[in-house]
Design a protein that fits this description.
Helix 1 packs across helix 2. The strands form two sheets. A seven-stranded parallel β-sheet has the order 1-10-9-6-2-3-5, covered by helices on one side. Strands 4-8-7 form a three-stranded antiparallel β-sheet, with helices on one face. It has one domain: Rossmann fold (3-Layer(aba) Sandwich), CATH 3.40.50. The protein is α/β, with parallel strands linked by helices and 241 residues long. The longest helix has 18 residues. The protein is globular and about 40 Å long. It binds 2-amino-2-deoxy-6-O-phosphono-alpha-D-glucopyranose. 2-amino-2-deoxy-6-O-phosphono-alpha-D-glucopyranose (GLP) binds next to loops.
């Protein structure tokens, strides 16, 4: 793991977005694994700004997202489909057919998992962007998820629902389940960039980097990946040193 502690969120956003832009320019047909949550928003803003100013070309780039809520209409403002279109896809020249998100509204959710696994076979991320939950989850792989997991349906933990409640009118509106890439799918990415900001991520970051590799802290598996960069602001890194 290469750990980078930078002295502001803005500097993290600038550095990570520069890596992504360089990748897109050098790999016209590359696959970007993308994440949601508040953490990557500044990075997406920087990609949009660069696309407007420098015409960085996404016309053959493929994207694949980590996860999606189950039973939340695609057009709901907090679906990850809406989030990604609002924050990134609507503002760059990625082709709709090259955008991949799991479908949490499929009647047969097992089928939805199977078909997203198939999509992943042909669209293995060259770079996977990750955030981290306060309980150490990556994607929506909650503590206890098998390291062998592929795409699956997960029941969200109360803590995760509480953390995400700020985006919904009430706690009752926060979805209870999600469809997510499994740990195995995430580990298949060629390169992983995980970003964390703020004090409330510091314990999860500490356990991910210094703790033992355990399914109780899903992000700890990243210790076993051979190309992981972790970008932290000082508060997220505060327990490390
Ligand atoms: N499924 C997403 C994760 O991919 C994300 O990393 C996490 C942290 O979110 P935030 O960046 O808002 O702290 O939230 C959600 O649970």
């Amino acid at each position: 793991m290469k750990i980078h502690v930078l002295n502001s969120k803005e500097l993290v956003n600038k550095t990570v977005s520069e890596h992504l832009i360089k990748f897109v320019r050098e790999h016209k047909t590359g696959v970007l694994g993308l994440a949601t949550g508040s953490t990557p928003i500044g990075i997406y803003e920087a990609l949009v700004k660069d696309h407007k100013e420098n015409n960085t070309d996404y016309s053959q780039i493929r994207t694949i997202n980590l996860d999606e809520y189950v039973n939340l209409d695609q057009n709901h403002p907090e679906s990850y489909y809406s989030f990604m279109h609002r924050n990134l896809f609507n503002h760059i020249n990625v082709k709709p057919q090259n955008i991949h998100l799991p479908n949490g509204n499929e009647k047969d959710l097992e089928m939805a998992c199977q078909s997203y696994n198939d999509v992943l076979k042909n669209n293995q991320p060259d770079i996977q962007i990750l955030g981290i939950g306060a309980n150490g989850h990556i994607g929506f792989n909650e503590p206890g998820t098998s390291f062998d997991s592929s795409v699956h349906i997960i029941e969200l933990q109360e803590q995760t629902r509480l953390d995400n409640a700020r985006f919904f009118d009430s706690m009752d509106d926060v979805p209870k389940k999600a469809i997510t890439m499994g740990i195995k799918n995430i580990m298949d990415a060629k390169r992983i960039i995980l970003i964390a900001f703020g004090e409330n991520k510091s314990e999860a970051v500490y356990q991910m980097v210094k703790g033992k590799v355990t399914e109780n802290l899903p992000a700890s598996i990243l210790q076993k990946h051979n190309n992981v960069e972790i970008y932290l602001d000082e508060s997220a890194a505060s327990k490390l040193f």
